[in-house]
């Protein structure tokens, strides 16, 4: 694994923040060797534009509070279906469930190591 511990800590904070706002299908990927421009991706989904916005706001809030880290760029905030938060060393993708199925980032990066995010198990569905 090539992801530095500091980046992994931030990625886990972002994943936890996304989980708190009920993001689904949260995955982290070690893309450093494949891309060379960033160390890791965090990809998660939500069923609505409003929830995507809430997830992004919580990720930004927690990363600023815990790690004093702010995104270098935000893309797609106006579209609301795919927001990209670029922190330089990691990129967070928050996608509408339909966008995620169409663009298939998980399939594109299926051959890179998946990162352990240490998220709590979701409650069982009834």
From TrEMBL:
- Cellular location(s): Cytoplasm
Which domain of life, per UniProt? Bacteria
According to its UniProt entry, one GO biological process term is: negative regulation of translation
- What Gene Ontology cellular component terms go with this record? cytoplasm
InterPro entries xrefs: Iojap/RsfS/C7orf30 (IPR004394), NT_sf (IPR043519)
* Keyword Cytoplasm in annotation: yes
Q: Describe the subunit structure.
A: Interacts with ribosomal protein uL14 (rplN).
The protein's matches in PANTHER family, at most eight in alphabetical order, are given as: IOJAP SUPERFAMILY ORTHOLOG, MITOCHONDRIAL ASSEMBLY OF RIBOSOMAL LARGE SUBUNIT PROTEIN 1
Similarity-based family? Belongs to the Iojap/RsfS family.
Q: What does this protein do?
A: Functions as a ribosomal silencing factor. Interacts with ribosomal protein uL14 (rplN), blocking formation of intersubunit bridge B8. Prevents association of the 30S and 50S ribosomal subunits and the formation of functional ribosomes, thus repressing translation.
Indicate what this protein is called per its UniProt record.
Ribosomal silencing factor RsfS
Name the species this protein comes from.
Nesterenkonia natronophila
């Amino acid at each position: 694994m090539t992801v530095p511990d500091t980046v992994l800590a931030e990625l886990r904070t972002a994943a936890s923040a996304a989980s708190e706002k009920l993001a689904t299908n949260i995955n982290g990927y070690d893309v450093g060797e494949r891309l060379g421009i960033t160390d890791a991706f965090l990809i998660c989904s939500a069923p609505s534009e409003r929830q995507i916005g809430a997830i992004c706001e919580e990720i930004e809030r927690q990363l600023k509070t815990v790690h004093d880290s702010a995104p270098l760029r935000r893309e797609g905030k106006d579209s609301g279906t795919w927001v990209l938060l670029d922190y330089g060393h990691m990129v967070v993708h928050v996608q509408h469930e339909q966008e995620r199925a169409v663009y298939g980032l998980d399939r594109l990066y299926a051959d890179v190591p998946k990162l352990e995010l240490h998220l709590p198990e979701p409650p069982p569905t009834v």
